[in-house]
Amino acid sequence: MPINQQQNMQSTAPLLLSRPYNFSPGPATLPVAVLERAREEMLNWHGSGMSVMEMSHRGKEFTDIYEQAVVDLRELLDVPAKFKILLLQGGGLGENAAVAMNISQGKAADFVVTGGWSERSAQEAVKYCDVHQAASARTQDGYFYHIPDPQTWRIRSQAQYLHICSNETVHGVEYQELPDLKALSGQNLPLVVDASSHILSRPVDWSKVGVLFAGAQKNIGIAGLTLVFVREDLLGKAMPICPLIWNYELQAKNNSMINTPPTYAIYIAGLVFQWLKAQGGVSVMQERAIQRAGLLYGAIDGSHGFYVNKVDPLNRSRMNVPFFLKDERLNEEFIAGAKQCQMINIKGHKSVGGMRASIYNAMSVEGAQALADYLKFFAQKYG
Ligand SMILES: *Cc1c(COP(=O)(O)O)cnc(C)c1O
Predict the structure, then answer these.
(1) Please, which residues bridge with residue 191 across strands?
(2) pLDDT tens digits, residue range 182-228?
(3) What residue ranges line ligand 1, CB within 6 angstroms?
């Protein structure tokens, strides 16, 4: 079956032959339309005589690119006016430190550990404030399979914020909805959300959020850009050691241009935002994500144990699908066969092993279907 698809691709879409389905966790696949547009505009952006890479970040051309990107992003995610949108550098890891320096006031912060990324966030924040795990889903053998029930979280009254990772990229665990900290803690505790690997794949309930951040290289664009959404009342609390470039209040006052922003990464993100709007926006992305994930989990669960994913079905990620072959001696064969069928980057994270398919917004439903077909084909051949 996968062989047929390969022939189809050869006869009808030569582009796909040189561009296999790429399940990389990040930097990740981009919409072809965005890459083509970037190519068209590469040498001479809109008659300016310059590539975007060659423009001053303070010039009229780049200011237009920047402002359009922010307007489109605000529209796509329906971001209320009381949230500032910052376009920074430093990635998700940088934000783990930046958030602590901006809103912990050197006091205390609580974390819910549901996978490798929230665990690393807690480790980073230790340098700046007193850290406590309000809950942890880590198992004896170091895996993560579920989101602990928010009713069981032990939230401290002195915490200045509570941090979650709403989609665990490595372990494939995703919150279905954001926790309501007002109801859980009885106080006005800000929720900090690391949404790096599923931003723009579903709407955000901003009434529950204090700060939300995301690196661009998973579900938006290219590496080098980090989006930060911060509620206005949380500005102005930065610790004196906070670097200027990560000071939310100062960056908000300066349109994120205290120093040179990652101009080309902002430009590509802006093209992706336009592409998302043309596709029908976040609700369409959500529908497609449900379809893609349904195809892959369906193939895994339907394999009678040939493939295994142990994450609680209620907390399975729609973006990152980790799975193991029951017989791990077939791993290399599985990866090589996938490559022959034009599917690449399905090896699991080094800390976990096994396989992982990352199926972000830019992955077509056909791509997920091709991988689901390959899963069935391979299981039939070796099962
Ligand atoms: C990739 C990732 C990070 C780290 O991002 P960097 O840009 O490499 O610092 C943090 N959190 C999550 C959820 C991620 O997926």
Answers:
(1) 162
(2) 999 888 999 999 999 999 999 999 999 999 999 999 999 999 999 99
(3) 26, 91-93, 117, 165, 169, 194, 196-197, 215, 218
